[in-house]
Write a sequence for this structure.
C-alpha cells in the first residue's frame, strides 16, 4: 500500500514537472492606453527617470534607495533601486531612444528573482490622442514555468502596467491642459 502511494506521488510530481516544462520559453506582457496629449508631452514622462518615478507603479517603498547614472533621459541612462521585499532590487537602462515614438529599455532584476527582460514603450498618434503601449518580454526559466502554474504573472504584471498607465495618463493630460491654457 505504501509503495502504491509513493508511486502515485512520483507520477503526479513527474506529470507536474513535465507540464511545467511544456510551457513557453518566453513571455510578453503588454497594455495600452489612449491619452489626450501629444507624444511630445508624454515621451519625456517616460524617458526621464525623474519623471518616470512620478507615475511608476513600482515606487511603493518610501525607504527605497535610488541611484541614477548618466543623462536622465538618453540612451545609456540608468536607474537602479534597492528596496523592501515588494519592490526588490534591480536596474533599468535605456537602450534605444527614438523621441517621441519609441523607447526600449533593458530591465535587470536582482531580487526577488533574477531576470533580464526587455521593456518597450511606443507612442502612436490616433486622431486627438496618443496610444501609449507598455510591453515587456523575456525568457522564462524552468523555475519561472513552475511558479507560473500557481501564479498568473501576465495578470499580475498587466495590472501593474494598467495602474502605471492610468497615472501616466492623468499626469500627461494635466500637463497638456496647462500648455493649452497658457
Amino acid at each position: 500500500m505504501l509503495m502504491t502511494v509513493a508511486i502515485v506521488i512520483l507520477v503526479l510530481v513527474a506529470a507536474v514537472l513535465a507540464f511545467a516544462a511544456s510551457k513557453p520559453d518566453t513571455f510578453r506582457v503588454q497594455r495600452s492606453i489612449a491619452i489626450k496629449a501629444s507624444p511630445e508631452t508624454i515621451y519625456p514622462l517616460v524617458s526621464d527617470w525623474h519623471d518616470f518615478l512620478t507615475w511608476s507603479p513600482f515606487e511603493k517603498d518610501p525607504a527605497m534607495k535610488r541611484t541614477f547614472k548618466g543623462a536622465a533621459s538618453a540612451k545609456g541612462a540608468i536607474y537602479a533601486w534597492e528596496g523592501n521585499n515588494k519592490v526588490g532590487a534591480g536596474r533599468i537602462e535605456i537602450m534605444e531612444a527614438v523621441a517621441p515614438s519609441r523607447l526600449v529599455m533593458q530591465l535587470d532584476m536582482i531580487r526577488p528573482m533574477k531576470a533580464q527582460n526587455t521593456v518597450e514603450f511606443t507612442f502612436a498618434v490616433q486622431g486627438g490622442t496618443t496610444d501609449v503601449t507598455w510591453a515587456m518580454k523575456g525568457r522564462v526559466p524552468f523555475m519561472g514555468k513552475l511558479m507560473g502554474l500557481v501564479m498568473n504573472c501576465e495578470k499580475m504584471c498587466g495590472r501593474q502596467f494598467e495602474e502605471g498607465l492610468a497615472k501616466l495618463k492623468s499626469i500627461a493630460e494635466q500637463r497638456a491642459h496647462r500648455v493649452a491654457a497658457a
In short: The chain has a mean pLDDT of 90. The chain has one domain: 2-181. The two ends are 82 Å apart (CA to CA).
